[in-house]
Amino acid sequence: MKQEKIYLKDYKEPAFTVDSVNLDFNLNEDFCRVVAKSQVRRTEAGAALHLNGEELKLVSIKINDKPLSADQYQITAEELIVPSVPDSFTLEIETELQPQNNTSLEGLYKSNGIFCTQCEAQGFRKITFFFDRPDVMTSYSVTIEADKQKYPVLLSNGDRIKIEDLGNGRHKAFWKDPHKKPCYLFALVAGDLGVIRDTFTTVNGRKVNLEVYAAHGKQERCWHAMDSLKKSMKWDEEVFGLEYDLNDYMIVAIDDFNAGAMENKGLNIFNSRLVLADSNSATDVDFHSIESVVAHEYFHNWTGNRVTLRDWFQLSLKEGLTVFRDQEFSADMTDRGVQRIEDVDALRAGQFAEDAGPNAHPVRPESCMAVDNFFTMTIYEKGSEVIRMMQKIVGRKGFRKGMDEYFRRHDGQAVTTEDFASAIATPNGKDFTQFRRWYHQAGTPVVTIQENFDAAKGELTVTLEQSCPATPGQPHKEPFHIPLMMGLLDKSGSDLKLNCDKITVNSDGKNLIELKEQKEVYTFTGLKDRPVLSILREFSAPINLKWEASEEDLYFLMEKDTDSFNRREMAQKISLRLLHKLIDQARNKQALNVDPRFVKAVSAIIADESMDPSFKAKMLQLPSYAVLAQEEAVLDAEAFYQARTALRQAIAKENRGALLNIYRKFHNVEPKSRDTKVFGHRSLKNQALTYLAELHDPEIMEIVNKQYWEAQNMTDRMTAMMILADSESAHREKALQNFYEDWKNDSVVLNKWFTAQATTNRKQVLEDVKALTKHPAFNITNPNNVYSLLRAFGANLVRFNDPNTNAYEFYADKILEIDTKNPQVAARLCAAFNFVQKLEPAMKEKALTQIKRMVAVESLSKNSRELLQSALS
Ligand code: TRP
Ligand code: ZN
């Protein structure tokens, strides 16, 4: 197997342009014929024709209608090469595919009898020989011929031209996309599908037909996706002035899909788990994810499709920006403060870990083996943070000005992250030269804070110093341009006016420090008493703050900060300090001593009737194991578990009555409502129940069991099932059995059953997971099954890293098995080994043995190899 790297520095402009392409699909049960007819022009004198193509059977190739003989072209593992071609010509290529045998789920494949495509990043080259690169944009017309009864629905991008009955039991659809696009946005769907329809009238009066397709019988679960689509269309008009540009917008739900969803022009293809929902089958979190992913794919129409990528190293140009846009949308649809907390939690748990591990890479990488491995938390979530920092620096109004400039300059083009940064900076009179280091340097910067208050002078000096840990290939880092939103609070918790000449006030009137040097000192004058510093408000930069603030200040901020993000952040900081002590005690086999002061503060939060319930739920959440693994020098899973459990138990014990009150107050109030406020109530009361379950009190387990059996929505049912699954309660087996019986024919919902069992803290969870991989409902070729059982288990830090088992060996076996069928899915499992350097010697040895075993397999895909190999160096 070839293991060549590709490099950004090798980028060359395409040597040919394609004025138009016509794709003709003839779909059958045992083979499919594809005829691609392109109008091609050479732009680089004398260049030979190189077309990408993999695993393809070439039937014929013609230039200007003349078939080429075998000596006029060559085919390698990755290319079709024609050394000599005219300057301008018609290229006609016929290939034969076997979608029914395609298990990689890229290119053209079949899912439950439905033909569908996934071309991003490089799947189009498995359909025909073509310029499979995003900077070759062209006009597509498509015809699809298939059996009329088996495939009544025939879809592709753009406008429906017509559908012809061929009379012989087959029919043929004609589509034309009026917008030029790169081939990764091409899509085709053919199958027997149910559909729901609605319309949206754009700001300029264009009536758009909206269609959501799903398996027959499931279409009634598509209305939430439809509502989310309409909300997204409206929001993009209002917030960014962006209007939809076709007469049709289609979403198709597919059961076998490697990722979440795909923004193909006019024809989004979705993992069915991100479309199908009703209150019986989906949790509040599912409803929220569907809304945000539908929005994400819709927003790509402008950020990704109208303006696309020059090359795959620029992936964050569209993904970071589109995540930023979907996060802003969610903030407007729900609660801005709570949304920010959730986004930062996800960033910390996932992206910070990635940035600290063997696969750390910049937001704009410079090299890679497998382009598919670019779809990371760094490209998406950190990419979004980079955009958010720009927005913080120039303010919301300034950011809108920059976005307008971006579309004015680049609509219809394939561009770079540099082009984006320049479009935001110029109209705002900013220079982002230093700022661009966020794109080029990997690793999470560390900012340390020193404070000194001079009472006599009435001056506070704040010294900030930044550094950034070394990452693979980048031993030394230059200073970043870091926007730190901040304020100073007086004793009553009110924001003071800031007297400091080094403060930036952005176009929203927000105060921020722009740290640019390695070390800078800020002096605040005119202060009567020592103020309390509140910094990194709204998490204005993706950094680690090292701040030895006094306990007094932390508790003060947790109670009083005017920035809700920071109130919750301080609660996390205090818990982390405490957990650190408890972990030490556990590691030293000492009794665990929970600080009563913290428990008292938490009790006050629980009792606070004035606090918004969804915010309260966030305040009560302790840092996840994934965050602990980053904070602690050693990943000692058992000690983490003991420490976190001791803290949760102490809180539950002290607040048994108060938590029960919360439970009774909100349980079964509007159980069918999908209102954001009701979501908040439900999440708080379910959190109260989860805390109470720590008490192992039979009376509580009765309440949990009752909630399981009487639940009127999936959120309640799932919460109860998770608690029971993680218990030794006598009710456990019956509930799990019942859930299975209810949902065994509904794979999207049954995945919750797999996850509930893979994420427990039970000692025998590895045995449970092993058994479930043999369960008739588990299909290793279905990505959702793999993610909900195996990936969920790999993310179960406590049990995946349990020294009493060899979960690593089992996991490596599964990665190897999946890798032969679907490299993209296998590669996504490899992240479970990212913590290897933090393990204790014996565990580390065990993990490295498995990684070496996998890398030694010669046929291992480049996807998995790239990710595993780095863990060894
Ligand atoms: N572009 C998609 C998105 O962000 C991601 C995606 C869809 C993807 N399918 C994929 C990434 C397959 C890798 C492989 O919305
Ligand atoms: Zn995306």
What does this structure look like?
It is a single chain. With 873 residues, the chain is of the alpha+beta class. The protein is 40% helix and 21% strand. The protein is built from 26 helices and 32 strands. The strands form eight sheets. The protein has an eight-stranded mixed sheet, with no helix packed on it. A five-stranded mixed sheet has the order 17-18-19-21-20, with helices on one face. It has a four-stranded antiparallel sheet with strand order 10-11-16-13, with no helix packed on it. A hairpin with a 4-residue loop joins strand 20 and strand 21 (267-271). The longest helix has 34 residues, at 377-410. The structure holds tryptophan (TRP) and zinc ion. Zinc ion (ZN) is lined by residues 296, 300, 319, 322. Tryptophan is lined by residues 118, 120, 258-259, 261-263, 296-297, 319, 372, 375, 824.
Provide key terms for this protein.
alpha+beta; Immunoglobulin-like; 5-stranded mixed beta sheet; 40% helix; 21% strand; binds tryptophan; binds zinc ion
